Records
---
Amino acid sequence: MIKPDGVQRGLVGEIISRFERRGLKLVAIKVESPSKEHLEKHYSDLASKPFFPSLIKYMTSGPVVAMVWEGRGAASLGRQLLGQTNPTASAPGTIRGDFCIDMGSNLIHGSDSQESAQKEIDLWFPNGVTEYQLDSAKWVYE
Ligand code: DAT
Ligand code: MG
């Protein structure tokens, strides 16, 4: 999910293109201004953290772009593309390492496992995703 700062800074295309060129397949995408309640559900595992209120405020500060990307090991590949939670610890070449500085404006969310991805897909895309054959897959996978 591209967070409100990523949308406002015009980084949607840049970010999508990084996932695309890695070989992942886009199966769902939408622009949305999610409610506070929706984001509290999304980040429910962090509800007891001191930064939770400011995280929810940040995430409701503008529209986000929610996406589902498929591919072999997609969740862990996605996390590699993102970089570390703290942008200042993120290597150049990663999204956070290239485009941001503060943890409270770190541009993008990525599911941290296959299990959390499934939970988040159910929350953000209750009507499911669009399955199709990506023709370029034969050039990406052995
Ligand atoms: P990530 O977004 O890398 O999966 P996370 O799930 O641990 O990181 O936390 C969700 C978001 O909450 C993160 O992108 C930024 C914010 N956050 C995490 N740890 C924080 C901290 N120690 N101080 C302030 N904000 C924090
Ligand atoms: Mg996380």
---
Amino acid sequence: MAIKVISEKCVGCGVCVDKCPFDAIEMVDNKPVIKDNCTLCGACIEACPVDAIEKEEVEKKGVDISQYKGVWVFAEQREGELLNVAVELLGEGRKIADKLGVELTAVLLGNKVDNLAEELIKYGADKVIYAEDEKLEVYTTDAYTKVIAELVKERKPEIMLIGATTIGRDLGPRLSARLATGLTADCTKLEIDDEDGKLLQTRPAFGGNLMATIICPNHRPQMATVRPGVMEKAHYDENKTGEVEKVEVSLTEDDIKAVVVERVKSEKAEVAIEDASVIVAGGRGLGKPEGFELLHKLAQKLDGVVGASRAAVDAGWIDHAHQVGQTGTTVRPKLYIACGISGAIQHLAGMQDSGCIVAINKNPDAPIFKVADYGIVGDLYEVVPQLIEALDNVDD
Ligand code: FAD
Ligand code: SF4
């Protein structure tokens, strides 16, 4: 869509210039010229006394999608350690690449990260493209975007997957803008359309009340960021072989506008709930912050960690790092024990793929029981101590 001036009709009165609320029209040689900041509001069309302005449909131009092939995964590392989400993306990328019959490539950036390249092959990548440079040691939007955008332009992958980490959420949009393609953020499911091979990218929408499936029909690559913890991790195969290619990068000081001066790590103890195999989670039903001490005891008995619903986090009973759900962390532990959690859709979105779900709730109609493998109707302050006692007896 664009605003077009029909110069044969225009009498040069300049009314549109005054009426434009965004100062997006200027008179040049007695004719209005629409500037880049036009928002297509249409105020000038209404105002023109001689109907000399109209909205024009601009033909949607795409790219020749037949030139694009292969699935790429951004293998995010921090301080030389591969993030779990990179391994999860390799697992999902492998399935997609196999379905399309194309190569799976991992893209790795950093400084002295060559040791990770072989690891990525063993996690299922057919090929690893990696770039090493001092300017890539710490993530900066400018440097990472430049290197990956140039690689994509040159090699044309049809799909590019990025973890929805803080870095991925910064990198994904910048890359998609640079490559003039679409990006579906925070996907929880990816599939290939059986009919036309397009990537079906599903994510929660409208506060998690419905799931939207989004496609990118005319532009490439089809880009998605994927929430950590949602996809299954790739299997590690010691015998897997593949191609590792180092690419040279040329980054100058001018390429990087924002310089990282210092990195200060949060003093709060990190809780890696996404990696835990047992989670004991508490909700508003705990009634008080001290309730988490009881859950902590049970979690310790099971070598697990403590999780929480948003209601408990919002009440200030526990830090957000423990929150499970749509606006918290997505988890899939072997065992998830939900104590005093009703089972709102936004909470379920973050835990319903757990191996075994045990729910403890006073209300027999609580929705959490619909996803639970084992349900205990009762007061958690009676049930949890009994569980701890039973485990004590097992220990003895
Ligand atoms: P409640 O719904 O109040 O449930 C408390 C439960 O405890 C009840 O079922 C009650 O029967 C039970 N109970 C009470 N006392 C006891 C007792 N003594 N023993 C046993 N059971 C007892 N929520 C999340 O959890 N994670 C998210 O990431 C998240 N993101 C959201 C994003 C958006 C955009 C929105 C709109 C909401 C989001 N929410 C999220 C909030 C979500 O909708 C619910 O409000 C929240 O999950 C409710 O938390 P709860 O189950 O602890 O509390
Ligand atoms: Fe031309 Fe219409 Fe703008 Fe007047 S209002 S300058 S006639 S386009």
